[in-house]
Amino acid sequence: MTGGHRSAGHRPPVDCPVCGDELVTSRLGCPGCGTELSGHFARCDYCALDAKELELLQVFLSSRGNLREVEKHLGVSYPTARARFTDLLVKLGLAGDEAPADAATSATGTSDAREQVLAQVSAGTLSPEKAAALLAQLP
């Protein structure tokens, strides 16, 4: 940005603290000259990511999509890195038809599949009931 007027890293809230509805950007301002724009501006899906999700996305992109590199950078197992990336895709609405649980059942090895299911429960993207059903199906 020009003029060094960059924000100190504060991120705007995504949801209304009163009712929980999605907040919209309706005003933009220039700290340099005071110009303001008012209207209804499109939301940036990537702006709603928290710091850990942004780090995951940055590592994934900088490693050119290599999940093994993501695994090394985050210091987690491959199934955990894959589960976190799947969760990120779900949050961004980019998961397509694949549900997070589908990735867990296709993981190689029973222990990897179990670890991935548990990681999804921990991340809050899979209900404990559905996880129990998936784990019961594993050998």
From TrEMBL:
Span of domain DUF2089: 16-45, 49-94
InterPro entries noted in UniProt: DUF2089 (IPR018658), DUF2089_Zn_ribbon (IPR053957)
Protein name: DUF2089 domain-containing protein
